[in-house]
Design brief:
The chain has 306 residues and is an alpha/beta fold. The chain folds into 2 domains: 104 residues, Rossmann fold (3-Layer(aba) Sandwich); 178 residues, NAD(P)-binding Rossmann-like Domain (Rossmann fold), CATH 3.40.50. Helices cover 32% and strands 18% of the residues. It is built from 10 helices and 12 strands. The two termini are 27 Å apart. Bound molecules: NADP nicotinamide-adenine-dinucleotide phosphate and glyoxylic acid (GLV).
């Protein structure tokens, strides 16, 4: 069995060693143009040339949850695309989002500013009931985030493509459910995949339907959000601010207004990182399951886009 690896901009040497150790009978190597045909590939954002040359591939394992970069390529219809299925990401995403929600709710940025001037001053406690959090995307990550937020007793709403039911979460779905979801939500957490339906979905029309004092946490993809619309709604006072981990162009260009906006917190696409050991264990487990003729989790439906 041949396994080839290609990670855009990264050297996958440690991954090659890890996969080789877990599958000693396999031939594991880093892809270079003209490399021999492989059975399985482990990739992040490969070029079209990779797909065209590796025409005999059975499975393309993505080392992330989001497959938007892969689905932009022209892929053979028979190729199975498999996304990472948690692999240690959901707990990271839950801690990141809870931290962002709590920092905003408890006004910790204002206390930080007070520390800079040596000021000892209390803020009036805010009511948790007024801070309903709406999680857009109730998949592997969104569901874990919704559960984690409930620990802190925030009212939690959820929004998905198809109807869902989660204990303690007010669930909305589909285009017809969007207005109700937004009207019930003050803090919006985006955890949808980037697809033709979800691109630019966080825009002036949708964000202005959030409750006054709304707050946006985008941890999915930069192309979900219309940057100028977010800034306009913060500057008009309808929204209180945002925490943004993902951007249309990454790294975020030095001249982008998000960097210096006093009500926007920027992090460098780090809310849920791919963990090498967990991911190798998951991918190797799936390769072994496929060899035994079993079905696996995380197979992407190209028509749905995730
Ligand atoms: P997932 O398990 O595939 O879940 C996707 C969820 O989004 C599902 O609940 C799905 O609805 C919903 N959805 C899809 N299209 C929708 C639409 N048009 N309207 C409403 N809901 C829609 O994905 P995941 O593993 O949770 O990951 C979500 C995304 O997070 C990834 O695609 C990736 O872009 C992003 N991500 C970011 C980071 C980071 O570090 N910032 C890390 C990992 C992942 P159904 O339940 O009805 O299918
Ligand atoms: C990271 O953004 C991922 O999709 O895993």
């Amino acid at each position: 069995m041949n396994i080839t690896l290609f990670f855009d901009g990264l050297t996958p040497d440690a991954w090659v060693q890890g996969v080789q150790q877990a599958l000693p009978q396999a031939h594991v190597s880093v892809w270079v143009p003209g490399a021999p045909q492989a059975d399985h590939a482990i990739v992040w954002a490969p070029p079209q040339q990779f797909i065209d040359e590796q025409a005999g591939l059975k499975t393309l394992f993505n080392i992330g949850a989001g497959v938007d970069a892969l689905l932009q390529l022209k892929l053979p219809p028979s190729l199975k695309v498999v996304r990472l299925d948690d692999a240690g990401m959901s707990v990271q995403m839950a801690e990141f989002v809870c931290h962002a929600v709590i920092r905003h709710f408890r006004e910790l940025d204002i206390y930080d500013a007070d520390v800079q001037t040596g000021r000892w001053s209390y803020r009036k406690p805010r009511s948790r009931a007024d801070f309903s959090v709406g999680v857009m995307g109730l998949g592997v990550l969104g569901e874990r985030v919704a559960k984690a937020l409930q620990v802190f007793e925030f009212p939690v709403n959820g929004f998905s493509r198809s109807p869902k039911s989660l204990p303690g979460v007010q669930c909305f779905s589909g285009v017809q459910g969007l207005a109700g979801f937004l009207a019930a939500t003050r803090v919006l957490v985006n955890l949808m995949p980037l697809t033709p339906e979800t691109e630019n979905m966080l825009n002036h029309t949708t964000l202005s339907q959030l409750q006054p004092g709304g707050y946006v946490i985008n941890v999915a993809r930069g192309k979900h959000l219309v940057d100028e619309d977010l800034i306009a709604l913060i500057d008009s006072g309808h929204l209180a601010g945002a925490t943004l981990d993902v951007f249309r162009t990454e790294p975020l260009p030095a001249e982008h207004a998000f960097w210096k906006h006093p009500k926007i917190t920027v992090t460098p696409h780090t809310s849920a990182r791919t963990l090498r050991e967990e991911s190798i264990a998951q991918i190797v487990g799936k390769i072994q399951a496929l060899q035994r003729g079993e079905s696996i989790q995380g197979v992407v439906d190209p028509a749905r886009g995730y």
